[in-house]
Design a protein that fits this description.
Blueprint (H helix, E strand, L loop, with lengths): L1 E4 L10 E7 L2 H8 L8 E7 L17 E7 L7 H18 L5 E3 L3 E4 L2 E11 L3 E8 L16 H5 L5 H20 L3 H10 L7 E5 L3 E9 L5 E5 L2 E5 L5 E4 L1
Parallel strand pairs: 2-3
Antiparallel strand pairs: 1-2, 3-4, 4-8, 5-6, 6-7, 7-8, 9-10, 9-13, 10-11, 11-12
Helix pairs in contact: 2-4, 2-5
The protein binds biotinyl-5-AMP.
Length: about 240
């Protein structure tokens, strides 16, 4: 069954497609993106094949917020900043529920060092971008992840209204997306640095080669600057994984 509801928002969420169950809201959003307006939101109660980066699994049982937003910015430059804009919207929403989230470059939001949200941005250059956001709200955290993940209800000690979280997230996404479209890159970068879980910490960046050092900055393009024994390295947002040392 598909329920379509229209919210009174200017851009994001003007149209919301609500699904009880889907493989992945990102896959669904990509399949309809060419024919949808910018701002259409796909949200599902459950995903049976929720995905992280590099085909990794994203646990998506009922009770969490599994959302994908179709965006059609005129300029597709610097999508890393769009990921940051989404992460900022998530931290704003957490704040509204009394939870302090920190952004783990490039695409996670952590609370007390545990992952509460992951963001997966995909798209077709010049055409559309799908920003997928998985936020643990009232859902159970699978056993295998209980030491590394958390949820809003675990942190608050009580269930929270999924609809209120959703509405807040859509509003905040709209605000930060406008900042992105208006080219307020410095604002996005400053807030991302201020809310970073990474800057000043010893990190290990795992890619084709491994980089170990202290994360010292996020540059204008959104790359992470790491001070290593052999000099300064610049790590761009790709499929890298970042661990704390
Ligand atoms: C991410 O990937 O963090 C991006 C996750 C994006 C999920 C959203 S939900 C809506 C939309 N539709 C989709 O199909 N995806 C998007 P990555 O950085 O690769 O992290 C994946 C890793 O996070 C896994 O290998 C697990 O270790 C961990 N993980 C899986 N499920 C989790 C959960 N519910 N909460 C916290 N951590 C989780």
């Amino acid at each position: 069954m598909i329920v379509v509801l229209n919210l009174d928002t200017d851009l994001i969420g003007r149209k919301v497609i609500f699904l009880r169950e889907v493989d992945s809201t990102n896959e669904y959003a990509k399949s309809i993106a060419p024919h949808e307006d910018s701002g259409t939101v796909v949200v599902a109660e459950r995903q049976h094949s929720g995905r992280g980066r590099r085909g990794r699994y994203w646990a998506s049982p009922e009770g969490g917020l599994w959302v994908s937003v179709i965006l059609k910015p005129e300029k597709h430059e610097n999508l890393t900043l769009l990921v940051f804009a989404a992460a900022l919207a998530v931290t704003d929403t957490l704040e509204e529920f009394g939870i302090k989230g920190r952004i783990k470059w490039p695409n996670d939001v952590l609370v007390n060092g545990r992952k509460i949200c992951g963001i997966l941005t995909e798209g077709r250059a010049g055409d559309y971008v799908v920003v997928g956001i998985g936020l643990n709200v009232n859902n159970e955290i699978p056993n295998g992840l209980s030491r590394v993940a958390t949820s809003m209800s675990l942190l608050r000690g009580t269930e929270v209204s999924l609809f209120h979280v959703f509405r807040s997230l859509i509003r905040n996404l709209e605000g930060w997306y406008r900042a992105y479209v208006d080219g307020l890159y410095e604002k996005i970068l400053k807030e991302t640095r201020d809310r970073s879980a990474v800057l000043g910490r010893e990190v290990r960046v795992v890619d084709d080669v491994e980089i170990v050092g202290r994360a010292i900055d996020i540059d204008a393009e959104g790359a992470l600057i790491v001070q290593t024994h052999s000099g300064i390295k610049r790590v761009t947002h790709g499929d890298v994984s970042l661990r704390f040392v």
